[in-house]
Design a protein that fits this description.
Blueprint (H helix, E strand, L loop, with lengths): L1 H4 L4 H11 L2 H8 L6 H8 L4 E3 L14 E3 L2 E3 L3 E3 L12 H12 L4 E2 L7 H7 L5 E4 L5 H13 L4 E5 L9 H5 L10 H9 L1 H15 L32 H10 L3 E5 L4 H9 L4 E4 L13 H11 L6 E4 L5 H9 L4 E4 L1 H33 L12 E3 L6
Helix pairs in contact: 2-15, 5-6, 5-15, 7-11, 12-13, 14-15
Bound molecules: flavin mononucleotide.
Length: about 400
């Protein structure tokens, strides 16, 4: 795979993926909201923290394995939910589920995904987590929870940072909407990228038909060119802590809240019976001008009991990024775009390549830090970098 051999880092994969994606796909995958400040900050903050490594320790045998709720994962890394991933590769959700199983990573099915979750569960030995975009209406939530239980989903992740659609001006400029609508601009975009049009768009439509809202609600939804019943975002602005309390009573599996940034919300999550939180700004795709998840992490960590798992996503592109989050008390980091870059470059092999880049970097960097297990990482190994001289 020559194209992958030249991709030594996630940044290389991103560069190659951007070349291959039509403008609307690039805008959807890579973009953020408004001025892109939350997105930029999520990437930048890693550079403000530096390591203070230890030496002369036996790092001959290293393991980055971590255990969460009795399940051992090979590294402290997982696949965050990414809706409409079919836009970068035919059947992308299934490929993500397979790679996650092979590489022993958690995979979170997006509520906006297009492959039925029951099939994804088969691809992943019934270990998929499921992320819900919930309306604040228990009459609609209950049947979805029943479907998830029937499918033996072990972990329910509720995204709490999308009460309304964000101001994604970049997508408006590209005439890219959910539900999808064809426009002359999109058609021209496709014509200018024949490899994507043939390899992704036509392959998908000819083999599977127009992708559908397969997992948004308790039943298979319509094609993504149509509005689902109640609309794609209907009643999400009514979702409150009261709903979380009721869901906790109904849902027997693990319950995770995604998009927790404020320490008080972390405390509320614990008080409402959540089993973990994901510190996240939705990859800079919801509220703009947020601090980075990495900057929010210590405040969230301090607000919850020591044994309460704190997970994080946003801007993880290097093994050192993951190790910084672990050193600050995160049990696991998730990434959203890196595996989609891999998929856009080389399909399933590209997704695997993205994972192996992280894995190699994590194990090498642990040795260079003087650590043979994740337990040895702590805030003592980190310092704020001195401000650049003016
Ligand atoms: C293309 C794309 C689609 C996404 N779809 C969802 C989604 O359906 N549900 C959700 O909770 N988050 C979604 N996210 C946010 C990710 O779960 C995650 O928070 C974010 O991508 C992490 O940042 P990173 O891309 O820098 O790794 C999406 C992100 C991207 C890039």
């Amino acid at each position: 795979m020559g194209k992958l051999k030249n991709c030594l880092s996630i940044a290389d994969l991103e560069r190659e993926a951007r070349r291959r994606m039509p403008a609307c796909v690039r805008g959807y995958v890579c973009g953020g909201t408004e001025d892109g400040q939350s997105l930029a900050e999520s990437l930048r903050h890693f550079q403000r923290l530096g390591f203070v490594p230890r030496g002369l320790r036996d790092v001959h045998r290293r393991s980055a394995a971590t255990t969460l709720w009795g399940q051992t994962y090979a590294q402290p890394l997982g696949f965050a939910p990414t809706g409409f991933s079919a836009i970068v590769m035919r059947d992308c959700d299934a490929a993500l589920a397979r790679v996650a199983r092979e590489e022993q990573l958690p995979f979170i099915i997006s509520g906006a995904s297009t492959v039925p979750l029951e099939r994804l569960q088969q691809e992943n030995d019934n270990r998929c987590w499921y992320q819900a975009y919930l309306p604040g209406n228990m009459a609609r939530i209950r049947p979805l929870l029943e479907r998830l239980q029937r499918a033996e989903i072990p972990v329910l992740v509720i995204t709490m940072d999308t009460c309304v659609g964000a101001n994604r001006e970049n997508l408006q400029r590209l005439r890219f909407t959910v539900p999808f609508r064809f426009s002359p601009q999109l058609l021209l975009d496709g014509l200018l990228h024949p490899r994507w049009t043939a390899g992704v768009f036509l392959r998908t439509v000819l083999s599977d038909g127009i992708p559908r809202f397969a997992n948004l609600a308790h039943e298979m939804g319509p094609a993504i060119t149509q509005d689902p019943p109640h609309g794609f975002r209907g009643e999400r602005d009514l979702l409150t802590w009261d709903c979380i309390r009721e869901i906790r009573q109904l849902w027997p599996g693990k319950l995770v809240l995604k998009g927790v940034m404020h320490p008080d919300d972390a405390r509320l999550a614990v008080a409402h019976g959540a089993d973990a939180v994901i510190v996240s700004t939705h990859g800079g795709r919801q509220l703009d001008s947020c601090i980075s998840p990495l900057q929010a992490l210590p405040g969230v960590r301090a607000a919850v009991p020591d044994d309460f798992p704190v997970l994080i996503d946003g801007g993880f592109r290097r093994g050192t990024d993951v190790l910084k989050a672990v050193a600050l008390g995160a049990q696991m980091a998730f990434c959203g775009r890196p595996q989609l870059f891999g998929a856009a470059v080389a399909g399933e092999a590209g997704i695997r390549h993205a994972v192996s880049i992280f894995q190699q970097e994590i194990l090498t960097d642990m040795a260079l830090l003087g650590c043979s297990s994740l337990q040895e990482l702590g805030p003592d190994l980190l310092r704020e970098l001195a401000p650049a001289p003016v």
